[in-house]
Each structure stands twice: as C-alpha cells, then as structure tokens.
Amino acid sequence: MRLTVAQLAERIGAELIGDGSVDISAVGPVEVADESTITFIADDRHIPGLEKSRAGAVIVAGRIEDLAKPQLVVENVNAALIEVLNIFAPELKSVTEGIDPTAKVGRDVKIARAVSIGPGVVIDDRVEIGENTIIAGGCKIGENSKLGKNCRLDGNVVVYHNCRLGDSVIVQANTTIGSTGFGYSFIEGSHRLIPHNGGVVIEDFVEIGANCCVDRAKFGETRIGAGTKIDNLVQIAHNVIIGRGCLIAGQAGIAGSCKVGDDVVLAGQVGLTDNIEVGDGVKVGAQSAVFHDVAAGQRLFGTPATDKSEALRVIGLTRRLPKLAEQLRELGTRVKGLEAAKNDKK
Prior knowledge:
flat, ten-stranded parallel β-sheet
C-alpha cells in the first residue's frame, strides 16, 4: 500500500500543512522513520527529535512552526495513529467462511451464519457459536459453552465447558478459559482438590492476550466485565469478578474471589491477594502487591502497596540510607573525640 501524504490526510480527516505529494508506505517512530514513513508526535518531548528525523511526514495535534516536513494536524494523535496503522497493516490471507474438513463438531451444536472454523478445531456437544465468529486452528470448545457474534479465537485457545463469551470478544493464542481453579483442602494428610462446578462469563468487547488463564468458579461464575483489556501472561483465579473498562498488564495475577471495580488499571506484575475488593478507578503501579481492600480512586505502589506518593517518598529515603549511615558513623566518631577530649581535661 502506497499513498501520498495528501491522500492519507483525506483518509484520516487531517489538515495538511506542507507538500502533499510525498509517497508514504509505512508508519514508524521518529528515531527510525525514513522518507517513505509517516511518524507521529503524541508527546511534545519528542518534537526536538523531528529535526533530525528522516520521516516523510508527521501526525501532530497542533501545527509545529518552522518544520520542513509535511504535517497532518488532527484532533487526537492516538486515534489517527490507529487509523493509519490499519491502513498500512500487512495484507494477510483472508479468513475462509465455513468448517474445515478436519474439524470435529459434536451433537446439537448451533453455528450461525458466516462463521469460520479452522483446521483441527474440536467443538463439543451443545455449543453455540454466533455469526461472524472466527475460531482458528487447534482450538477446543467444551460442552454447553456459548460464543457470541463477531468473536475471534486465535490458534490453540481452549474454552472449557459451561463458559460464556459475549459479542466481539478477542482471545489470543494459547489462552485457556475455564480451567479448574487452584483450590485445595488439606484433609487426612494430603491436599484434596475442591470441585469447581461454576463457569466463566466474559462480557462484550473484552480482549484477552496470549497465554492467559481464566479459572472457572467453584460455584457461580468468574466474570470479566465489558470492554476490559487483558495483556499476555495474566492469571485470573476462580470466582474473580472484574468490572468494566479495566486494563490489566502482563504477568499480573488476581487471586481467588477478588472483586475489581470498573476502570481499574493494574500495571505489569501486580498481584492481588485473595478475597479483597478494589474500588472503581484504582491504579496500581508495576510489581506492586495488594493485600487489603482499596477504596475507589486510589493510586497505589510498592509491596505492600500503599499510597503512591508515600511509597515513592519511602523509596527516596531508602536510597539515601547509605549516605545517612556514613553521616552517622562520622557523627559517632566526632562524639567519641569530644568525649575523649572532655575526659582529658578532668
């Protein structure tokens, strides 16, 4: 795909400043962009780098004076960037509607129109699949599970029995939904698995990354609210309830029976201990461990997680400890010297 800057500006509804005849065939960051690449400035800190950049054009939120490159001025740089990335996305083989001959489909399965079921897929009895849903090769859908319309399951996704996915749900490769939770009782000298007879409900427009695990409930359901986005390598334990519009970054772990409110952000490697409640709008910094209930709107950081500003202050003081220790040693030496001098005068 090649477009002139003028054509690209028209496609994304941008105001063009400068030469519109430059050909563009790719999107890239300021530092590595070449003459056929359009770059973007989402943060003013990167504006100085434009002077040295070879980029053929730049997407900006406001006109940059005395810049020789063509500028595409937009209201929202990130929204425009998404459009441009879609325009220049690699052209892959289109998905084929229908059921691959190597797929195995059980009894009483309901498959809507325009569904694509790839090679080696196994669909157990009484499964329902909504229209326009894509199930890539190697996936397994367990008994009595239901997938809504416009879903996409990438290769080797496993959805166990009695799970329900809403509309427009995306699950990336090798993720498992509905596995048995990690719940044991120590009885007569051994750990005995507690049956997990509940299910999993994933609401509309949820996106789940690769290699994630969402455990089924002991009873009732594990639920992920509409519009929540989950990164790769995330563990969500049994009976967890996650609200709407949350962002959960890679390697986060949410222990059993936690309740997470709407619009919560959990950064990478955040851990929540079991049976706690996290209020709406909470943001937890990377590698933090939360051991207690959190009221709505708080900003937390550290292990154990505390108010972010307090945690950063503690870190700052901790870094000063070697210097403070040296100062204490020097003071101790001076005090000993003063005491010795005092004793000599007696």
